[in-house]
Amino acid sequence: MSCSTSTDLRPFILPSTTGEGLSPARKVNDNYPEKVRRLVLIGLEGVGKTTLINDLTGTKFETSAGKEGCRVSDEQIGSFIVEQYQIDLIDMIGMNCKDPGQWQKELQGRSDAHGVIFYVNGSNGRQSALGDLPRFADYCYNLTIPMLFLYRSGELDNFKNCGESFEVRSQYVKTTDKVQYENLDAVKRKIVDKFKSHTKLDTLIDPIEFCKQMTQLKKVNEQLRQDFEKLQKELQKSQQDVEELQKERQRSQQDFEKLQKELQRSQQDFEKLQKDRVNHSAVYEKRLQKEKDTYTNLKNDMRDREQSYNNALKKEQQLNEALMTKNNEHAAKHEQLIGRYDRTTRNVFLILLLIFVLLGFILFHSRTGMIEDFTALLERS
């Protein structure tokens, strides 16, 4: 299994510090003194890691003939001191190109470190470019673990300036060809200068497991990217909504200020009405009392008028009764007059009849001189 070395692998924080993304590793030991730096030395099998530790620290660990690596004990550590900094170099089993991943079994026991030193054979760039070494280098780059690249002819602390592929980096290594392990004091100072500012212990995990989980993390990263783009669109829409809400808020604020002014005017009008009400209250009370008095007078007047009306009605009834009595009397008198008239008429008729008889008699006796007698008779009558 291999791990991609392309530039799309973005650096991320060591999983052991966050507890997210990767499998848990062994707990880091934080009890190191302030000026002690614990460094893991990694290289291909037979490159001379143990020999370098012996030369730098004065230890006498067993070394190999150069073609095959030797067995490294669990506590194969050499130390040296420069400028009051103690550097603990932890020897690591060599990486075997024919048996990749074998050294990973030894990694967990030496995983707590302030940094990693890659030891490369500058005279054999192709060998340095094979096996697990380039994968582990990219792995450490991604975990942002402090690293230093040392060569059998010197030291170089940055690989990124040499290009993207490990083969190009190896060709750069072959440009120097000095005596092996010369100028060890400069190498020690270079190691101290590189790692003295790094006080944090990092936990290294299995790179093979890391590569497996990197695929999952890439998928998660892609999903997160899509979610991020979606969130950006939603954020943009939310910003537009916020702008619209701000405009609406401004309009509402203007309306609110307008309503406040109207409320102030209404308050002033209300206060004025209250004053007018107080001022007109006495006038109203007087007017009300006057209306009450007028009502009382009208009521009394109506009662008097009603009483007068009743009295007049009684008088009218009495007059009607008297009139009826007089009418009855007049009727009786009228009947009497009619009786008298009838009698008078009858008498007149009799008188007239008598006159006509007398006239006939006179006419009849005119020849005989009876007229004078008749006249005398009339006079006597």
Describe the structure.
The chain has a 6-stranded mixed sheet with strand order 2-3-1-5-6-7, with helices on both faces. A two-stranded antiparallel ribbon has the order 4-8. It starts with 14 loop residues before the first helix and ends with a helix. It folds into 3 domains: 191 residues, P-loop containing nucleotide triphosphate hydrolases (Rossmann fold); 87 residues; 59 residues. 21% of the residues are buried. The longest helix has 158 residues. A hairpin with a 2-residue loop joins strand 2 and strand 3. It is built from 9 helices and 8 strands. The radius of gyration is 73 Å and the shape is rod-shaped. The N terminus is likely disordered. With 381 residues, it is an alpha/beta fold.
What is this entry, summarized?
The protein is of the alpha/beta class and 381 residues long.
Counting structural domains, the number is 3
CATH topology of the largest domain: Rossmann fold
- In percent, how helical is the residue content? 55-70%
Mean pLDDT value: 72
